[in-house]
Amino acid sequence: DVSMNDSILTSHSSKFVYGLWRPVTAIRRAAEDMNDQTEADETWSSLLITPPYPSHSGNMACVGAGAATALALAFDTNDVPVTAVWKSNANPPGPDVVKEFAGFWQLAVDEADSRVFGGIHFRFENDASQVACPKVARFAFENYMQPKKHGWPW
Known about the structure:
The protein has 154 residues and is mainly alpha-helical.
């Protein structure tokens, strides 16, 4: 999907433009941040594995926002119920996790939040991603999408 690819390029490029600390660095090195209201915790770790590149903006938030926008444009509504199933990769396998969403954007918000709750992004990064990446999807939709000759959208 063009909007997902372009969304990931948008977010990943910004990481090297802004070069912001990940939460693990910010928390462990809080004594160096020139803010007297923060206190370092040198033992803090994130729940998710911290990627080895700068933080801002969030790839997953951007992909979710771009995909949700592209799907809402294609279906002419965001209000399409979505069921997401996460398959267990535990050994031995545990139960699958199933979650219902009222629409595409609700799933995108959960997707972005997972990175904040997992400790690899800050909330402001999600907010920035969810503003920028829908613009990428809208641009692709308005400038490149064409209805198929035998029906739309399939």
